[in-house]
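Page 47, continued from p. 46.
Same chain as before, 472 aa.
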Amino acid sequence: MSVVAQILAERGAVVTGSDANGGEAFEQLRQQGLGVRLGHAAANVPPEATVVVSTAIKDSNPELRTARERGQTVIHRSQALALAARGRDFVAVAGAHGKTTTSGMLAQALSVAGQDPSFAIGGVVRSLRTGAHLGGGRAFVAEADESDRSFLNYAPTVEIVTNIEPDHLDNYGTAEAFAQAFVAFVERLLPGGLLIACADDPGALRLARQAVSAGTRVTTYGTTEPSAIPGGPLPGAAHVRVEVVSRSATGTSALITRWDDVGSATISGAGSSSGPVPLELSIPGDHVALDAAAAWEAGCELGVSAEAMAAALGAFAGTGRRFEHRGEAVGVRVIDDYAHHPTEIAALLAAAREVADARGGRVIALFQPHLFSRTRNFADRFGAALAAADHVIVTAIYPARETQADFPDVTGQSVVDRIPGDGRYIADAEAAADAAAGLARPGDLILTIGAGDVTRLGPVILRNLAERANPA
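Result:
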């Protein structure tokens, strides 16, 4: 909601709003001069205002109830964002995971390349110090949320689909319904628009093939050459391959090659050249290199040369809550990450292992599950993913819109029971943070993981580490 508020204010609207608990985004809006208030109340709603809500706002909310009683216009945040982007080349980045990093990469790279894009990202782009900006260029880059089907409110010029791995089944019910929403998403492309889909993900690859059959322009990207993709190359598609050359605790080196349909290596787009393009990323993880390939192809589609786009991607320093360094005490580094799906956690721990090995340390994971339904549906996979850590502490589930009463048998212990290694369930968050600090020794990495409020435990862990080293 905060990025929508910023964009609308930059477009000249008078924007007010409220938040239940406050936080960094709330304070940033306040510092920018927006009329934000702490707590929801009917008096906060100007009588002539259009009211913008997120899916999290329930019908009983006093502000929403007041607006409806008055007959005021009420729209979803995605509809407001679509209005703010009117007249721009809308680039929508969707997928169960990877969309924040991919959209943040693209927004920053286009900025570095001089395109001055507008963007609305679900996290702060560190180098830009914001997740929202109204630029003077043609491109408008946005993270498109599939969780509530709101990505169907956009009419993009370019779509990126990072993966279609089943999630949000509390809303969709079945994996088939989740996948079908992405088919409808592709149908929202403007005529002549481009779908960029990940060939490494079976769901995204199926979507790409369906789109080609429907006459949509498609480019796939991934870690395999077209000849290695099951079923052969897509007719008319330009396949983008990313090959990781080296890995380190501080970044990833890769080569990006675009292949034509007969298998010869070419680079096309603005400023075409031949041969693979080198890519030097300052963030570790093969999954980050894959996201970079998607952003690279989108940037080329938007008119940036292949080489300039690769160079601009090298300046990306990450987004908030994506492998975010929170501090170091007594030789122990604390990292915070938003990962809340098993696939995301597996990728996070693989990157963390690279960093920990370089330091001669271990990986300690403090995981807060998000939603009772997701914990129930993916408990086995959470356990398998978390097994990659040396020690795991699971704390109480962050309920968000759900209640424990509807899932009486689902707790963090449901995940711990499925970890084939050192796992402990500590429901109290502060006690969990204390336990994580107690396990650590110099060289170790402690990860706070989850989409809830586990992020607040980073400073708690650092304080505990410092106190253990210097007892009063």
